[in-house]
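It is worth pausing here to work through a concrete case rather than discussing structure prediction in the abstract. The textbook approach is simple: state the sequence, then state the predicted structure, then interpret. We follow exactly that order.
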Amino acid sequence: MKKKNQPECARCTVSPEKKACMNPGGVGDKGCPTLSGKADRQKAQEEYGKKEVAEFARQATIQEGECYADKDKKPYVMHPVKPRMQEICEFAHKMNYSRLGLAFCAGLAKEAAVVDQILKNHGFETVSAVCKAGAVPKEEIGVRDDQKIYIGEHESMCNPILQAMLLNNAGTHFNIVLGLCVGHDSLFFKYAEAPSTVLAVKDRTSGHNPLACIYTSGNYGAWVKSP
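Step two, the predicted structure:
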């Protein structure tokens, strides 16, 4: 059952310059959590008051600001200058992390090797775990032969829980997820002990750029809007 005043930020029709979440004294649409969610906002701020959380949030916000150039120019026109790979390295240094975990999909093994080398070039110790680690047959979690990709053959299940445990055992300070499947990435986040970020997500049809079908949903990709 839908809750009263449930946030629906994705449906907000207020223009950016008038949004309450972006401008003091601004206005909000139906269910605006900035205007009506005082109790939740207070609880969130209490979490930010915790020393480790506060520093993590502070450095993440500083990192965000450093991704733009010419900020002293007025009127300011956004000028982004840093790719996410660079952001990850800089943020990890800001947080004094030295041992980074890399949880990657077997289908992106070549990319993982490049990422691993980049991290080492930036002075990090790396620990990496591929999704197929353990070679557990898909049948062990109740997958039928006809539900596999390669019917009639051995097919190792993706094992994000083991990936998380391997990185936990290595004592990683920060984890990077590269190309894990929908759902498998969720299990990794659930079981990983260190904070984790995503470098890239799995999208088999768009070169791992899931927003491609969103950008084309008004014309060539209209089919994605239909169930």
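Step three, interpretation. DSSP finds eight helices and four strands in the chain. The beta strands are 99-104, 125-130, 174-178, 196-200.
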